[in-house]
């Protein structure tokens, strides 16, 4: 299935075969890849995989592409890659001279991007993911979130943010004074926590000395580029589509607005 | 502090400044980096950080290098990187034309290496790490391991190995028919589980149809290159050095043999 983004780009790049992205727009890992494709101005077809109602990710044809039965998967001619952080590395490397320089401009920049991308995967993600599940996603999927697990998760997250605060007092973004793959990779979970989990104060100026720097990294660039407010509304659409068994729909209706880039707007929604 | 490996290489590369690796030889993450340095034939100084007795990784001078207080850290002239998987990527990229081609030889190879390196970080490591802690490391550090947590961990690991079995029925190693950064990254935890945790059957031909392939990946190459049997004995040295409070020593005595490359030998110890 094509998304609106594809139609916008069709004239400019109709001779270049589009990459195919198999995923779900409400999935944080799919969002990570979509954001990377947008930063690198790569035209794509989003092939929606229903991971809720029809459980397409556990069917043989999907397992042949991704043996763990997880989204997303990228197909670029004869190269097929899974694991979102492997996919964004592939995209950022292949399109190095195009769009945002997500690896920076020097070998040192690249080393720092890889370092903070790993910190996201090993420190930030394990801390934030349980909070987002128990505060945001579990209720969406008709399950009961556990506030105690969410609270423990947020305590761990605070410790990671303490370190970020120190780093961001010295540079604008995590890997230096440039927006990189590392910052981008933090966005999907952070977005859900601050917009849908009601925890905006965690990264706002109110709670943190370097709140403004954290805000720069997590929201200013993001709110400017991606319509996360719209994204939030679309999470509401997912809720509205819950079937009688409490399972989410395949998300087809919300594909269009997620992949639409909107004009810049100020970083006020997060303060 | 220098290690034996450094002395071996001193004549050939005395004009090239050595990289410094801050870590502990019994740490799985430090081992990952040491193995990569050896595969790429990069001369290094191991600066032992005592993470047990004197807790050097929590002291201000170390936190200035690694704000999370974790080992290892690599220092290569003006570039300083932490997070073991970021360090090995940096080494493999910088020394691309030297030693083992750990990213393979094509863009497709590289995409597959990144994919399986992420699978190691996101699927394999979370499954195996609790088992290794509760079966091997907790007792070494004077703590009581929990057999129930180890059992749950091993059940998760079995599911990951089920997928590996399918992959390794089609290619010799995870990313294709070449030993890569992805295979290398699996070694430290796997080594502890099969040699010190008594779980060799998990990846041996006895339990698994593709046991021989798994064995190829996990042990043949490894046993050929790194003296893991020696490494195992050295874990015993750590135990012997436990002080009255049950804390491990700084590991200085076991540095030399870990960084020594021994001649080839057959893959019989794992069957």
From TrEMBL, chains A, B:
UniProt keyword Transferase present: yes
Domain GST C-terminal per the UniProt entry, residue ranges: 106-246
UniProt-recorded Gene Ontology molecular function terms: glutathione binding; glutathione transferase activity
Catalytic activity as recorded in UniProt: RX + glutathione = an S-substituted glutathione + a halide anion + H(+)
Lineage top rank: taxon: Eukaryota
Coiled-coil blocks: none
An annotated GO BP: glutathione metabolic process
Keyword Transferase in record: yes
Gene3D superfamilies (UniProt xref): 1.20.1050.10, Glutaredoxin
Domain GST N-terminal: 17-99
GO cellular component: cytoplasm
EC number: 2.5.1.18
Keywords: Transferase
Family, as annotated: Belongs to the GST superfamily. Phi family.
Protein name per its UniProtKB record: glutathione transferase
Species of provenance: Marchantia polymorpha subsp. ruderalis
């Amino acid at each position: 299935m094509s998304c609106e983004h594809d139609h916008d780009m069709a004239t400019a790049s109709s001779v270049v075969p589009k990459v195919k992205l198999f995923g779900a727009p409400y999935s944080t890992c799919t969002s990570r890849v979509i954001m990377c494709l947008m930063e690198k101005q790569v035209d794509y077809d989003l092939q929606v995989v229903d991971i809720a109602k029809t459980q397409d990710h556990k069917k043989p044809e999907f397992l042949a592409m991704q043996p763990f039965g997880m989204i997303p998967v990228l197909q670029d001619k004869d190269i097929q890659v899974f694991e979102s952080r492997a996919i964004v590395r592939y995209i950022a490397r292949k399109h190095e001279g195009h769009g945002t320089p997500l690896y920076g401009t020097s070998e040192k920049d690249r080393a720092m991007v890889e370092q903070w991308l790993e910190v996201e995967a090993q420190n930030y993600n394990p801390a934030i993911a349980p909070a987002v599940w128990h505060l945001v996603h579990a209720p969406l999927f008709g399950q009961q979130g556990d506030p105690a697990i969410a609270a423990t998760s947020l305590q761990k997250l605070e410790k990671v943010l303490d370190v970020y605060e120190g780093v961001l007092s010295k540079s604008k973004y995590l890997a230096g004074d440039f927006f990189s793959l590392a910052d981008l990779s933090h966005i999907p979970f952070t977005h859900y926590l601050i917009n849908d989990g009601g925890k905006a104060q965690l990264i706002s100026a109110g709670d943190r000395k370097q709140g403004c720097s954290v805000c720069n990294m997590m929201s200013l660039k993001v709110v400017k580029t991606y319509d996360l407010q719209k994204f939030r509304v679309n999470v509401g659409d997912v809720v509205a589509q819950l079937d009688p068994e409490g399972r989410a729909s395949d998300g087809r209706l919300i594909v269009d607005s997620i992949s639409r880039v909107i004009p810049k707007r100020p970083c006020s929604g997060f303060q």
